[in-house]
Amino acid sequence: MTQFVDVKNMTRWIHRDGVEPIMAGMVQYLEDDFLRWEKFDKVPRVASHTPFGVIELMPTSDHQEYAFKYVNGHPSNPARGFQTVTAFGMLADVDNGYPTFLAEMTLLTALRTAATSAMVAKRLARPDSTVMAMIGAGSQAEFQALAFRAVLGIDQLRVYDVAPEAVVKLRRNLEPLGFGILAADSTDEAIEGADVITTCTADKARNTILRSDQVGPGVHLNAVGGDCPGKTELEAAILDRGRVFVEYPEQTRIEGEIQQMAPDFPVVEFWKVLAGQEHARCSEGEITIFDSVGFAIADFSALRYLRDATAGTDMQARIDLVADPEDPKDLFSLINSLKPVG
Amino acid sequence: MTQFVDVKNMTRWIHRDGVEPIMAGMVQYLEDDFLRWEKFDKVPRVASHTPFGVIELMPTSDHQEYAFKYVNGHPSNPARGFQTVTAFGMLADVDNGYPTFLAEMTLLTALRTAATSAMVAKRLARPDSTVMAMIGAGSQAEFQALAFRAVLGIDQLRVYDVAPEAVVKLRRNLEPLGFGILAADSTDEAIEGADVITTCTADKARNTILRSDQVGPGVHLNAVGGDCPGKTELEAAILDRGRVFVEYPEQTRIEGEIQQMAPDFPVVEFWKVLAGQEHARCSEGEITIFDSVGFAIADFSALRYLRDATAGTDMQARIDLVADPEDPKDLFSLINSLKPVG
Description:
homodimer, 32% helix, alpha/beta, ornithine cyclodeaminase, domain 1
């Protein structure tokens, strides 16, 4: 039997533990796994592209456990009443190959994407950061805000979205939680005085939602939305002005902001910062850029965290996903009996 | 909501419809999909190897529907009470990326592997074939036998397995269903007078369970067990003596019997036989060889068939696998409400 956390139980878990404690806990799991980065099997995600979206499989393994995530990205979905991104995933036991844990991951991906951004910003943003500009106020925005408050203490947001109703939604969700939120009329207004700039828009195109001349010294740029071939958000010139930190270069060069750059454009693998092999921020004035695309190891961490946090509770249900006859060499016995099993 | 067929309901379906009618129906779906082979996205499966087994993801898409299967292969599992192969898989709507159908696939893979073998043998075996030798009587054996009876009318089996208890199991399962079964003491005895030879053993090694001098003229060789790098069953010389038919050459050259041959070893893509672009059997005396490894398109067909055959029945349950908020741009609303959803 495989343990299963469905959407309802995912929301029960988030209610029980709270988004910010979950972000803090998930960052611990992420750091544990990023610190043993070299132990993991790593491949760029396996993508099936169509003109209107992408479906991807993201596998990884530490040779004890195997994880994969199914995730789609369909920018035109919201206009038709669907989520841009939905996901589910699982863990399996490498020793015998049996799936052990299945979970909804639309919400879990939102949590882990934001937790990863916060883990990185904790090392790269200026320690005195208090103000975050957010360009894009879609489904990921609240999670980013809560992760940055949980991990860096940032609670002042300056938000711009081409769709004003998205900012209205963000304020409705976050102001009751104590955030100070300025609804900006432009990107320029949003980034005024920001220590951190988070870009997170959904359009699958080569966009420039942030120009180089808009980015001042000392900023940490948390570039979340450029995560797919043909989908970028930053003017390329920005990338030449600071150090660019990535999860897994082989994947980021295909999917991230650096798809705009030469194949040998210099990047820093973030796990090396954690491991003390690369510098974090070098100066007050340095521009640091996290070219986030989302890598399978972060899903591995998120699934492990969810499983451990809900173990032994009724938030996990048993699901009969894999036939397991008494005699393992006699699969046919399952259907040869006079009546169905179970 | 995603529809779900678990193990219990898979067995209910097989009981309702019967293995042989299912094989016949599945062959129809397989032929439909193999005939439009060029329309599918095709990639070799994504494998994570360890010294004791492999975990694989097998995706494909016809640009209307997307399918993938999770499957493991652990030859040492049965000795520890586990299945060698377990699997589950799903269908998704390419248009919006949402998963629509999830199913156990340990049993379904057993059915589709055998149905694929039978579909191929229907074109390649001599039309007057009545006797099948089976080398290996593991979990796949009964399914192969039933598929060959359903599709080719073969009901005489000559079976050899290094483990005599496996043959006892096969007889126990199949003799009540009307098969004539000879329990052979050797491969030589098993293949005596056989029109079709099915090889299907589990050991992950470069084995020779069938030598070239054992294969006479006119035989159709259904080589099922060589399906993984480092796992072959046939003496390479056999492959030089007949035409070799494959599912997807790019994958078979990595995983199949032809991994023993040069990278340009000539093969025939089976879908071209269906489409009339390549000859089936050319003469009474020709040796034909199906180097079966299992390709994602066959899983796509099997999932579609299962879904269609169980649609509108209580064999499909609803599973809440993917968060789907009322406002698709407001994922946070799912966890921001005063109480959990559902």
